[in-house]
User: Fold these one by one.
Assistant:
Number 1:
Amino acid sequence: MIDRNIFKIMLISVIMLFCGFVLIFFNQYHNAGEIKVSDFSYVPWLLAEIFLAFLIEFILLKIKRNINLWLFPCAFFLANFGLLSVGRIEYALIIPQIRWIILGMVAFFVTFHFEILIKKILNYKYICGILYVSLLSVAIFLGSDVNGISNCITIGSIRFQPLEFAKIIFVFFLASYLGNYKNISEINDYNNSIIHQYDKQMFYLIAFMLAIIFLLFFKANDFGNALIFLIITLIIMYIKTANKFFIILSVILFFTILFLCYYMLPEAKTFFDAWINPWTLSSESSKKIVQSFFALGAGGVWGAGFTVGHPDFILDAYNYFIFSVIAEEFGLIGSVSLIIINVLLFCQSVCVALKLKNNAEILLAFGIGALFFLQVIVTLFSVTNVLPVTKTFLPFIGYGGSATISDFIMLGIIVSLSRKENFND
Amino acid sequence: MTDIKQKILKTTKFLIILSLIFIIYLLYLQVVKAEDFSRNSINLRNTIFKNNNIRGTIFDCENRPLAKNNDENIRIYPMGESAAHIVGYANPNIGNSGIENYFNNELLGSTEDFKNMGYIAQIFNCKKGNNLILTLDSDVMQTAYYALEGKPGAVVVIDAKTGGVIAMVSSPSFNPNVIQSEWQVLNENPESPLMNRAANGLYPPGSIIKPMMADIALSNAITDEHEIFECGGEIDVGKGYTIKEAHNDTHGHLHLKEALVKSCNITFGTLAMRLGAEKLESGFERYGFYEPIRGEIFETASLIPNFKSLDKGDMAQIGIGQSSLLVTPLRMALIASAIANDGVLAEPYVLEKIISPSGYVLKEHKKKELLRIMSKERAELLSDWMEEVVISGTGKAAKVSGIKIAGKTGTAENAKDKEHSWFMGFAEIGERKVAFSVLVENGGSGADVAAPIAKKIILNMEK
């Protein structure tokens, strides 16, 4: 019975998609007075996307190995929600975004089939570490800001953000690095040298992570991703080791870095001043925050109505600040439902993690689920000024090829870990 | 369940609780703070809205326009000076005032009921703003304005039963049609024509406070209808100060009724001294002096002295509406309306209806909880006495044959110049009881200046 309901739920998001595009059509018609025939060129792409989604879900259903069937429909819903918002802001971005979603789904399907490889990767913690560092270095040292997207690498006509993929590798690295870590209580032959060895391992990790944060913050001005890397490390450290000393130590060091930045770097000072009091409108990011507030206020409970809001007032509307657009047009009801869908996605990935046996795999599944949810939380906090403005995306929602594809790959990893073979020992 | 899994559950719980707290914050931003954000001057949404929508028309009670857009989309005010203060103006460069300001959003086309309702609001949103229907009567406004003859002053006329304001006129006035070109001159004019004297001007009430003082004295049982007062034309109130009768009259022996009809200062000064600070304060409180009218009519709070710090002489002066007591013409009209309406004060209002361009009634005035400030018997007693004022007392100049008119004149001394001329009361015109107050700044005798103005208004309304 559950099987059929899943298709019904997917159907709801298709209906939403249909209604949304009808409204976008009317909005275009209303503003321009006419619609060119070529404006419907996205329809075949859209049909292909929907078909692919149902096909993938159908295959997942047929495999019958206790695969988690909820994660993909959740992502499908979020992706469609994001597609509508992006298309509503910029008509020309509809087809590219559909293409990215299709590519993402393909990447999901491929990743899903590489379960053995995924498990193998977990044995090579140093390779993960090196890969991560190199991706990060490429992003930080070679990347540049293009059209408001930070740390982009441009090769010919293709642009991509290594940082989005670095996140995946980072979770792999953490899971493999800490998967074999033993707590003092777990070590039977208690002796000093072993404790020493494991503590050293922790120290290296913290030093490594802080170096990354330092680089991200100083070189790339990317506060949001630095924060996400820190929190995800702390969460996994807490789960595996429960060593309060290291957690508190890294939090203190992180804040020390922030304080040093605040007093030493003028850019960092303007950045944090904009956060402390955005109403002075002293910098670009404070203007972003104020416009985001106005959009949230204009939304109210019921929203201004899809296609009726003013995303043109919001800077970075179609990527970092897309939540403000959604909150204006769909109101509190829309923004809360968005949060609930994300909570659902997170809970499903926790369920997958809880059914696993291998420590490293548990950490990987939970780490990726938490990474999704942390991105949501950090992004939402940033657009409501709980945190300073960040350059993080809402998973599956904001416009961007790298982000969409890497999100689907992460989803593929979790779903593949939920396969039955993983807990037959 | 292993240790790791328990910690996973803990972390999950923590993150979910974090997002729940965030939802509460979102509720605060999107609902509580929404109004603040939308009023912010840097919010471009307002400007866009203003430029896109055609402002609605403001009508009086008989559908005559008070403010409308002409073919070139310029705001015009057919009533000119006579309705300038209460209706106000809407000017893109100067700003808005009066009803034009208070109902700005409604006139532009957004009503609060639908404001945050997404698509439902879109159904009701067309490029035309909503129309307002007010309780004002252009005819009465015009009569009142011209009756003031350009002298500084104010007239307030209220339907006593409902609280609907029929006229609120302030003189000198300005022409809202040319407000922009005359802005500088108007602002520098020492007579301050931009101020709405009816609701925001503060004046000593003089003798028109006496009906209220009579009620306060009777309800505190410090006197009764049968007590005989002795008026020798002068009374010593201590510290070498005296209160005198106007025109150096002496009234001899008289009851409270006669004291009111003849406006005997000695009697009312005595009563105020007998009442003392506490009873006076509770009396003024009962009459709503401490709660100015807010909303579409914005009344300036009356200036009530701190009774406890007053000496006997000042107390006696309060009894005849002098000393540091300052009130608005609107407030005095409200007292008259309460006496007319069997002791019940109906809250004044101006907006009768908001109507969408397609004719749908979006908002209608709801009858508010009425405030009883005196018993029905007392109100009847006072109106009988005030009727006598018009029939045989100081208010003869307001007499109109065939209409029951009750009133009280006032001639309020002030530090600057000639006395302020006051007349307040009510008339039964047809089914309606119409309460009014008339003030002419430095006009002199209330009986000679203010009462005839009231008569003109009543004659106009009788037609």
Note: Chain A touches chain B through 49 residues (CB under 8 Å).
Number 2:
Amino acid sequence: MSNLLISAVGVSKAYPRAHLAADRMRSLGRLLLGRQDADAQYVVRDIDLSVRRGESIAIIGQNGAGKSTLLKLITGVLTPTRGKVEVFGSVGALLELGAGFHPEYSGRDNIEMAAALHGLSRDELASRLQQIIEFADIGNYIDEPVKHYSSGMVVRLGFAIIASLKPDLLITDEVLAVGDESFQKKCIRWMEDYLEQGGTLLLVTHSMYHAQKLCRHALWLDQGRLMQFGDVFDVSQAYLAWHERKQAASEQRPAQRFGVEFEIVDLEINGSGGNQSTMLEFGGTLLMKSRIRSRDGRVPVAMFGIVRADGTPVYGVSTDMDEVSVQRLSDHDYRVEIEFVGLSLLPGSYQVRVHTMDTEGLRLFDTLERGLTIRGESREFGLVRLAHRWNHSAGGQVD
Amino acid sequence: MLAVHFIRRELKERYRGSFTGFGWALLQPLLQLAIYAFVFVQIFKARVPGAAAPGYVPFLVVAMWPWIAFSEAIVRSTTAIQDNSALIGKVALPRQILVLAPCAASFVLHGAGFLAILVVLAIAGQGIAIAKVPLALLLYVPLFAYALGICLTLAALQVFVRDLVQIVGQLLTLMMFAAPIFYDRTNLPDRFQILLDLNPFTFYVEGMRNLLLGYGAFPWHGLMIAIPVAILTLALGHWLFRRLDSHFEDFL
């Protein structure tokens, strides 16, 4: 158990009501008497977490899920309302933008202050100061007051300080997103080195790319509760799928969907149903099957479409355009299947959609959407590979 | 170590951006002294009672500098937690330091000012007992403990009750006039004497005057009370602060 770094048992945090002066007085009385607050708002509930040295955990979840609060509880900035948090080692935390910086002080003074907060002596600081300034790489701004910094510079300085401290536990809360591309890369490289040397990382992020690149495990919080903890790929996929379901429920599926005239029962892509996004190799075959329930027994028109992740339409085609009809299974059940052989979509993220329309192909009744990721390497631009030929040289023909 | 850093930061911050820098630390109480001395000596014709009494200026100085350190420490510390809310929500550090820093800085600053003006008065031949200066400084120890206890209490309560800082200013004015800073105990009618004995600051004024000016008797009785009062106040302040400190960020 000696390599245990964080132990959190049954940790909950509630914020008291503190808007009105009367509420504050009541809370003060309660605290002095040592009583619990009854009408408090819980933001983190019953989290158990033990982190060993050398682990790397991404904390994911939507806004307001309690991610930052959990980190603050671990750093000791907040005290849990119930439960207990123990950390057996030094902590370096980048909690929020400009956390702990004094806006009136110069960058150099703030480095000094941060060093004192982390218990560095003057000699230790002197030997690291140059290294910090180089890592931050903000030029002459180091002697300007922090209030004149851009948000990216604040993050640079904050990260540079933490990086020089090499704490046992590194905690960062969605601050990387502020830095520019080159600084992000620098930070990620540093964190990879740090992890290789046995450092421990807790990373709050909305970027699944960062999570998967840096962390082995992930913790998914929702409304202050632990939803899932495990391998980063499993958890992040479950999280994304949950997001899609939620979005589908709120956007694509109006409440009166049940009982619409032409309802999409399911959509199967390359043999897999469910809500997971499908992976496909570039140039592979895309096979989509869908079942449709017709309330009145009329024959529906089905349409399949592909859009890019940002919504740009790529291709769409319906049964009535191609003058085919859906396959009838029973009076109310129909089935439709479409296959794209040698799919020419370039690698990237797309969404496939199936729509139902009435017999005349005029009114849209139902929509189901699913993610599709095309894997592969290609340096071509755009969405699809168009058949082409270079006419001036031999052997360069592509089709 | 961290405390020293914060005290330094506090000292630097007070006079950062002003032309005279630390000069203000001395200049400000000097101006205050000049005003009081003018009002009391020229207008009210105040004279220190008793034969072989010291002049009014040294009489006022030895009481007023400790008072300035004490009252400034309290005023500045009351909002210490509130002012550092940005730090409290984001960095884990012992919060007592945030209160200790302004409190200690006031004592350091005005302690140094006190020494400087004592030297000036001694050179001017105002009969300062230089040999007893170390003893007089020793009085600062219980005074500081007493002030820190009050500072911790007020800083913690201020987080919850924001009106406190307004009340504190008024109470300090009351306490100043209810201590024999501008006058001597013998100026006061007998029936009010009890007020002076109830005021913890009276002891420090009379102690300073005895040690530095040889004026009046040393208040041994007051010392017996002042030390336990200082210890109890500090203990109470510490207890209250610890009780509330983990909840500060919820109310800031």
Note: The interface with chain B takes residues 15-16, 18, 21, 24-25, 27-28, 31-32, 34, 72, 75-79, 91, 93, 95-96, 99-100, 104, 113, 116-117, 119, 121 of chain A (CB under 8 Å).
Number 3:
Amino acid sequence: MKYMIMLYASQADHDALSGRPGSKPAWSQEEIAALHEHMGKIHTELAESGELVDAQPLAQPVHTRRLHSRDGVPVVTDGPYAETQEVLAGYTIVDCSGMDRATEIGFEFASAPGPEGATDTAFLDIRPLGDGQAEL
Amino acid sequence: MRPDHVEDLLRELAPQVLGALARRYGHFAEAEDAVQEAMLSACTSWPREGLPERPRAWLITVASRRLTDLLRAEEARQRREDGAARAWRPPAGDTEADDTLVLFYLCCHPALRPADQIALTLRSVGGLSTAEIARAFLVPEQTMAQRILRAKRRIRNHGEPFRMPAATERAERTAAVLHVLYLIFTEGYTSTVGAQLYRVDLSAEAIRLARILRLLLPRDSEVTGLLALMLLTDARRPARTGAHGELIPLAEQDRGRWDTAAISEGLALITEALPNGPAGPYQLQAAIAALHDEAPSSADTDWPQILALYEVLLAHADNPVVALNHAVALAMARGPEAGLERLARLAGDPRIGERHRYHAVRAHLLELTGERKGAAEAYLRAARLATNLREQQYLNRKAAALCARPTLTTMIGTVDTARGLLLGLLAGDCFGAPFEGGATVGEAAVRALERTGEPLRYTDDTALAFAFAAHLAEHGEVRIDRLAREFADTWRAEPWRGYGAGAARLFARVAEGTPWEQAAREQFGGSGSYGNGAAMRVAPAALAARDLGHAAELARRSALPSHAHEDGTLGAVCQAGAAFLAAHQDPGIRLDTAGFLGALSDTLGSARWRDSLERAGTLLRAGASPERAARELGNGVAAPESVPSAVYAFLREPDDLAACLRFAVRMAGDTDTIAAMAGALTGARCGPATLPASWRARLEGAERAVALADRLAVTSTGGAR
């Protein structure tokens, strides 16, 4: 069964991670390195156990472009999110034995190191991928 | 034979075998599949059964057999479909050595998209597996397999025979191959994503392929130029990132870490290539890289020569990235204004005007002209436009470093700074005094004191700081004789304020008429005091100082009447410097703690104090508790055991006076002085607003602090100098 583990964070969280002045307390180089190491380790393990399908980080939310339609006319909005709104920041798709295992993997993500309080508003969702076969 | 040796050998032979097959039979797409299968079978059988006598011939035989099978199946299908037998192409008749070259041309066929050219080249010439290429480009294997399949199908549909392109096309086709190799190299060089272990090193692969190409086209100067460019660029890789993966720009790299072997090889190649007629773009870029690599430092770089080379390069092609680099060279050779002028002409170019690189260059040049505000804004803009987190971090760091205010500009800012400093000092002294001398101070005890609501008395720290503030407000500078007498008078007026025995003795002697020089020198058996007395009262110096150096000078002079020992003086310099830095940074911008500690260390110029501040930085990154920080930095009455601790408490809580004081008090020991010093720093940064009104109401001397602050604020804006 495949699951998508979706990590959520806001532009403000991203700003703190990238050390933007005036944002929440910034991460130090060591803290960033520790985070990368933690994430790298999880993904290497997932690749080795054969559970990794795909994983990608997303660029900062301000780069978002939203398309919708108003009165039948397509409308484009740039960077539609509020500073503190949590949006998808990255995802990992795993192919594993079940929701419990996917949750276990999720816990490893959630135990990522970082400065105190930096990830207080961040969270992650785990959702099974829609099973195309069963729906037919 | 070890498996990795087999793999190296196979990758070397792969293009030769594929070339031989494709030349002999045509049918590039099927031949490619057949070679992959032959290599797979070699991979499993060679390490087990040993290397065949003629590995290349073995591979060609196995691959030919497999190709025949594939073609037969294909032929049968064709026959079923249209009944027409397809004739095999005759061998092209070129020499075998050229097979690999033809393969290069075919893989970089102009009918293919660049992504497909890259994939096909890495697989057919580079001998990498589809899975390896997929991982290198961070795409699913299936996607990469599809890319390769599509590329092969396009070549087949195009009816391209497996032979050398006509002489008239040769230059253009070679340029396409060079471009593909260049793209592979830059993908490897700039990528910072993914664990390196797990990915093929694309830069190294591009260099390997360029070496092969050079063997095939030894007289083509652009091929030599590209190889030189790759080597000269790759040589800097070890210095390009810091210990934690952060990017380090060329100007700041540790040139000792550059790969000298790669540099010498690159230099030799470009020296060989350049005299062969007009230089193409790769040779020009290699020549520029060579000038950088040869320079002992950024300042000692031959910028006029680099500028000249960029001008030739620009004549070759209208490339906005080259134009951007040209602007940098112009700035370095003729001054930042010339560079900015050049940049202004690029602003409207849609290919570059809204790219982060444009704004990063602009920020850098503005910084060079001293336009700090504009530079900071441009760095922030660049960081917003960047998608790579490492680059964002670098750009944001640059912006943060520029956000420090060089001068106090507004009256309101000055008054707030002065009031915050003195009220913070007073509050720290008052709240710290009841805990003085304790081995530990629990959180509960601090809360209990906050709840009682009783008035709090200040001690010698505040008394002397007030005296010093009044002195500065009066004179705008330190008049030592007078200051010594004023300190002594302050003691004599209220000797019960908790003065140490040594200080009381000293002030008593000065009050009796002993010259301060003599009295101070004779303290502590002639060694002079290294206590924190000079530091605890010195913070108002920050409000009268013109710059950091002036703050340090005022601190030194103010320490003289009582602290003859170097550490006593350095304690005062450290606290005054910290207060100056705290007062002159925009509180709306997050404090750059590393930059703060660095600037403070530079002011002190003492190895021991620098170590101490470095330890504070380490503790800060670890988020150390007040107890641990006190254990490692100290909480005693000696200056080296208390001033760094106060700086630490400030850096932990630079934006909240109440939080800072709670933290400082919990460091225990000489609580009133440590909290007074920390409070002065946080107060100087964030003003009095974060001091709770209920606390302020309990402070003895709050009104005096405000009155003195307002007098000093006028002094510091030049009103009463």
Note: The interface with chain A takes residues 138, 140, 193-195, 197-198, 242-246, 376, 380, 383-384, 387, 389, 392-393, 396-397, 399-400, 403, 588-590, 592, 594, 621, 623 of chain B (CB under 8 Å).
